[in-house]
Every structure is written in structure tokens, then in C-alpha cells.
Specification:
Blueprint: H1 5-18, H2 58-61, H3 70-73, H4 76-93, E1 101-104, H5 113-116, H6 121-131, E2 136-138, H7 148-159, E3 162-166, H8 172-183, E4 191-198, H9 205-219, E5 227-231, H10 238-241, H11 245-256, E6 260-263, H12 276-292, E7 296-302, H13 314-326, E8 331-335, H14 358-372, E9 381-388, H15 391-399, E10 414-419, E11 426-432, E12 439-446, E13 453-459, E14 463-469, E15 472-478, E16 480-481, E17 487-493, E18 498-505
Parallel strand pairs: 1-2, 1-8, 2-3, 3-4, 4-5, 5-6, 6-7, 7-8
Antiparallel strand pairs: 9-11, 10-13, 11-12, 12-18, 13-17, 14-15, 14-18, 16-17
Length: 510
């Protein structure tokens, strides 16, 4: 958002009076980052005097009740209140872009009205899902019934959700029959995607290409929803994806020509800590190939456990979501959301009886934080990533022959990003605004989900910033001028937390 000249002047006075603070916000630098003192001269009123009167002293010309300048009289509390009011005005005026947040998959069929005998029972579960911040759901068992697809679409629509129809295991004609029934219903606008197949192997791709083409042809040229499938991750066996993951992805893109690229990767394994560096390489490969094909990348976020994976805690869940977004992912989906039968191996956020579990609260907390950011990062294009004190990630990206990791000199005015303590591990996703010159974004993620991380960002020019995090617009101001002519900003991120820093040249806002 463009800041007017009057706004900027007011903000400068605030920053001079108060400095910066906050949990995920700039801190006063130390060492060689001394803040210069600035002040504006006061204007002294001049009194017109009769000629016969001797010129008075300067003190005598000053009104006794003259109000000092705002800079001199404003208390730190008043300055902070004014700053918060300005931030609220900007936040309220920022039109949000909804981040697609989905879930696999729809609630258990046992919760449908026909089984419970309670009118609206299935609607109620969708309402609970919507309250978690999820805004679309992927079907599962709907294909097996003549009425279930429409019932799920109806419940989604009433709850304000969208629905992706899952064609897995069906012929093109069978899928088209279901999809066209949904499109002819009063709830048609809630249908927002066609999910053709889940985790196709390399050998499945030729048949998948034919199936996808047949579905597209049957739906006609005017059908405007994305048609696509979800790919396997890099840790799938060579018998499933071959010996070159990038070649597997390219084979799918070349043959199927999907409207969207999506894959799933679950980094939290039992007894093995995490595989976040390998997940980063998976994201990087997929994003690079999606970009070449001019389509968006969506990913799954692990939100469940089973005999081989562990259910993530809140910090791990938070880190996973932010890291995907910081690497240019444009939409996410949680696996798993709903338990489909009693005693299923997977944990979930909604159990077989429709009750929220402890995982529900974790997912809601992450979504509340993501939605508070109003999707400001979605208007920016991903340029690359800078890793601070995270050699495992750098090594994984190099092994995968990814071009994702960049140097700070390739990212606008950012000169360096340095961690401030041994435990600090930071990923900085670097973005540019295609609609505005000299406007950059830096999506910072604390890669350590056990400790907070601190980082110093150094810029070559004077920049103003807005810091967007889980509490919305959390801070704003200008970077601190150093003795060497550079400008710095210190940030602290909580365990696994992420934040988006909007940066523009300070002169652009005056």
C-alpha cells in the first residue's frame, strides 16, 4: 500500500521518539548500528513592533503559552498509540487475498443425514471444518453413491467452503456423470477443482494423460476449473518414480498438461527427526518445473500421524506451512483432516463421530495466523531463497541441482542476512512485486521449531517496511542507518514462526 507523504512524516516522528519493538518485530541494533540523532528546527514567531519601541529580546517575543512542537511534547506512549492507529488504518484498508487452505478429505460417510437420522448433521461437520480456517475440501468416497457428491457439495456451499471432486479409480464417463450432475445443481459455484488421480507412478502417466484429456473434452472448452492430479514425493521408490525425480515431474507435465502442479511430502517421521532439507529440495524441483509450465504449485502439509509418521506439534505444523509459502507455494492442503472409520491408522482433526481432536486446535491456530496476513505475499513473485545457518538445506538443494538458493545481492536492496545466535536458522524467501517497481517481499521463516531465531537484515539503501505475521500487520517503520552508510533491521521469530516483510525504497513513500 502506498503511504502518503503526510503519513511518512508522521511515522518518522514516531520512530524517532519510540524506537522499535515487539515479539516478531525489529529490535534496536547494537554494535556498529548506532542510530543518528535527528531534529527539526522550531519556528519562532516574529512580533511586529512600533518604530519607537526598542527591539525586545528573543525571549520576549515568544508567547508564554506557545505550544512546543509535536516531536518535543509527544510521549512515548502517545507516539506508540499513533503508530498503532496508523497500522490499524493500513490493515483495515488492505484488501485480503485468500490463501487456498484445503483438507483431505470430506467427513466420514457415517455422519451423513441418512445414517445419523438427524437433519443437517453433515452440514454441521462442514461448519466445524470451516471454523478451523480451511476453505476447500477434497472428496473421497463420494464416487460410490448417487447422492453423496451433491450432499457434500451442498454442505460445503452452506459452510462457505469449496469442493474438489476426486476422480480416483473411476473411468472418464463415470467421473463426467458425477461432475456434470454437480455442475447442473444450485450449488455448482462451490465446485472449484477436478482431482483426477492421487500419486500416479511413472508407469501410470500415459493412461493418466488419456483420462485427463477425456475428462477435459467431456467438460467442454468453457469449463473453467483446474483439472490436475497429485504427484508422489521424492522419497517414493524408484519402482514408482524412476531414478530421477525431476524427470518424473517433467514426464507428468509434458504428457498430462495439468492446470496445476501438486504433490505431497510428509517430513516428520517416527524415530528419524525430520526431513525438512529433503522436503525443501522436493518443493524447489516442483516449483521450478511448475514455473517453466506457467502453472501454480500446491502442496500438502502433514497434519497427522500413522505407524510410520508422527503427528506434528504446533511449532512443527507452523514451520511446515510457512516454509512452503516462503518457497513460492500458492496453496496448501492438510493431510489428514477427517477420520473415515473408527480405528483408522491415521490421526486426524475431526474424528469418526464428527468431534474435533487436539489437532483441530493446532490447525486452527496455524490458519488463524496465516489468514491474519491477508495473503499479502500472494501478489508477489518468488525469485529465490536465502538460507542462514542451515547447511543441510543448502546441501539438499545443490544435490537436487536446484536453482532456488540465491545470494543476497540478487534480491533487490538486501545486502546480507546474518543469524545472530548459534541456534538461529532462518530461511528468507525473496519476492518481487510484478505490479510495482522498487517493491520487494522477504518471507522469513524460523527453521528451528525448538528455539526462537534472530536475524539481521542489511540493506544497501534506505527502506521502509511493513511486517506481516500471525497478528496481522505487526510493525512498520524504516531501517536503521549505520555509520558505514548501510541500513539494518533486526528481527526475532518464535519457534517455527514465519512473517512477510514488505520493503520499498523510503523515497518511494514520500
Amino acid at each position: 500500500m502506498k503511504i502518503t507523504k503526510l503519513f511518512s512524516l508522521g511515522l518518522c516522528m514516531i520512530l524517532l521518539c519510540t524506537g522499535l519493538g515487539g515479539c516478531v518485530s525489529p529490535q534496536t541494533p547494537s554494535g556498529n548500528t548506532d542510530l543518528p540523532e535527528n531534529s527539526e528546527p522550531s519556528t519562532i514567531p516574529v512580533t511586529e513592533l512600533p518604530q519607537e519601541t526598542a527591539p525586545p529580546t528573543i525571549e520576549e517575543t515568544l508567547p508564554m503559552t506557545a505550544a512546543p512542537t509535536e516531536e518535543a511534547t509527544q510521549s512515548p506512549e502517545e507516539a506508540e498509540a499513533q503508530k498503532q492507529a496508523m497500522m490499524k488504518e493500513i490493515y483495515d484498508a488492505t484488501e485480503g487475498i485468500q490463501l487456498p487452505i484445503g483438507g483431505w478429505s470430506t467427513p466420514a460417510s457415517a455422519l451423513r443425514d441418512g445414517y445419523t437420522g438427524v437433519t443437517g448433521s453433515y452440514d454441521k461437520v462442514f461448519e466445524v471444518i470451516a471454523a478451523s480456517g480451511i476453505n476447500y475440501m477434497i472428496t473421497l468416497e463420494e464416487w460410490s453413491s448417487g447422492s453423496w457428491p451433491l450432499e457434500s457439495l451442498s454442505s460445503a456451499k452452506k459452510a462457505g467452503l469449496r469442493l474438489w471432486y476426486n476422480c480416483v479409480g473411476q473411468s472418464a464417463d463415470y467421473s463426467l456423470e458425477k461432475i456434470n450432475a454437480l455442475l447442473s445443481s444450485e450449488y455448482a459455484d462451490a465446485l472449484s477443482g477436478i482431482y483426477v488421480k492421487d500419486e500416479p507412478t511413472l508407469g501410470d502417466i500415459p493412461d493418466l494423460a488419456e483420462l485427463t484429456s477425456a475428462i477435459r473434452t467431456g467438460l467442454g472448452e468453457d469449463f473453467d476449473r483446474p483439472v490436475f492430479s497429485n504427484l508422489l514425493p521424492t522419497y517414493a521408490t524408484s519402482g514408482m518414480i524412476g531414478n530421477d525425480y525431476r524427470a518424473y515431474v517433467r514426464s507428468y507435465l509434458d504428457a498430462v498438461k495439468p492446470d496445476r502442479l501438486m504433490f505431497d511430502y510428509y517430513p516428520y517421521q517416527i524415530g528419524n527427526g525430520d526431513s525438512l532439507p529433503s522436503m525443501m529440495a522436493n518443493i524447489a524441483i516442483a516449483r521450478e518445473e511448475a514455473e517453466k509450465n506457467g502453472i501454480e504449485l500446491y502442496t500438502y502439509i502433514q497434519s497427522s500421524g500413522n505407524p510410520s509418521t508422527r503427528e506434528p506439534d504446533l511449532e512443527e505444523l507452523t514451520l511446515n506451512a510457512h516454509l512452503n509459502l516462503a518457497m513460492g507455494v500458492k496453496g496448501i492442503a492438510y493431510f489428514l483432516v477427517c477420520e473415515h472409520y473408527d480405528g483408522w491408522d491415521y490421526t486426524n482433526m475431526i474424528d469418526y463421530e464428527g468431534n474435533p481432536t487436539p489437532m483441530y486446535d493446532k490447525i486452527k491456530a496455524v490458519n488463524d495466523g496465516l489468514n491474519a496476513m491477508k495473503g499479502v505475499y500472494l501478489a508477489y513473485d518468488f525469485d529465490g531463497m536465502i538460507l542462514c545457518n542451515y547447511q543441510k538445506g543448502s546441501q539438499a538443494l545443490k544435490r537436487a541441482d536446484c536453482q532456488t538458493e540465491i545470494t543476497t545481492h540478487e534480491s533487490g536492496p538486501l545486502l546480507s542476512a546474518l543469524h545472530l545466535n548459534k541456534r538461529s536458522q532462518i530461511a528468507v524467501g525473496c519476492f518481487t512485486n510484478p505490479a510495482k517497481e522498487n517493491d520487494w517481499g522477504y518471507y522469513l521463516v524460523n527453521l528451528n521449531y525448538q528455539f526462537q531465531s534472530k536475524v539481521t537484515l542489511t540493506f544497501s539503501e534506505a527502506v521502509s517496511y511493513q511486517l506481516w505475521g500471525s497478528d496481522g500487520l505487526e510493525d512498520m517503520g524504516t531501517a536503521t542507518l549505520n555509520a558505514d552508510g548501510s541500513y539494518t533491521l533486526d528481527l526475532t521469530l518464535k519457534n517455527g514462526e514465519g512473517a512477510f516483510l514488505k520493503v520499498s525504497l523510503a523515497t518511494e513513500n514520500q
